[in-house]
Write a structure and sequence with these properties.
Helix content: 25-40%
Largest sheet: 7 strands, mixed
Oligomer: single chain
Distance between the termini: 14 Å
Structural class: alpha+beta
């Protein structure tokens, strides 16, 4: 059991390192939108994705979903949530398919771009979506905005909201089980 815990902790550290490296790949300039041409992608090419939200430079939400049912989740996406523990496991691959179906052609055309929303108000928010494709490549998009101002486009917000809603049952059950193991 101790070996499993050590392996899961090492995997969590590797995931967080990869996320931090990928963040640097998505430039967001103060002038608004960055433009980096990318080849057109199809929905069916997406085999995994991450959603990474920081509020006031603190991790608020991290979701990784894979086509094979791989799942990593940390946080609820709110500034008040102090949950910083990353949970790693497997879930029904149908959850990935359900969330992936919320990707739009516009989102796929926006890969490689970053957006700095004008006149941000409230807590600073940084949202990064990264997609892995069948050919092994990855790309994504980033948004800087304020918690009390206009955020990402509606299709992006709906994608994130769907991912949270679809992974919540797994996340809450995993948290409950982890708390019980910690108390036992």
């Amino acid at each position: 059991m101790k070996i499993l815990v050590i392996v899961l902790a090492a995997l969590a550290v590797m995931v967080m390192v990869v996320v931090r490296v990928l963040r640097g790949r998505l430039p967001v300039e103060a002038s608004g939108q960055t433009k980096t041409p990318v080849p057109a992608r199809k929905l069916s090419e997406v085999v995994a994705f991450t959603i990474d939200l920081d509020i006031d430079e603190k991790p608020a939400l991290f979701i990784l979903l894979g086509e094979d049912g791989s799942i990593n989740r940390m946080g609820r996406g709110t500034a008040e949530d102090a949950e910083r523990e990353l949970f790693i496991g497997k879930t029904d691959p149908a959850i990935f398919k359900s969330v992936r179906s919320r990707l739009t052609k516009e989102m796929l055309r926006s890969l490689g771009q970053g957006y700095d929303m004008p006149t941000p108000r409230g807590a600073s928010c940084r949202l990064v979506l990264t997609f892995k494709f069948k050919d092994g490549s990855s790309n994504g998009m980033g948004f800087l905005y304020g918690s009390e101002s206009n955020g990402p486009p509606q299709d992006v917000s709906e994608f994130v909201t769907t991912a949270v809603a679809q992974t919540d049952p797994w996340y809450e059950e995993f948290r409950r089980n982890a708390l019980r193991r910690g108390q036992g």
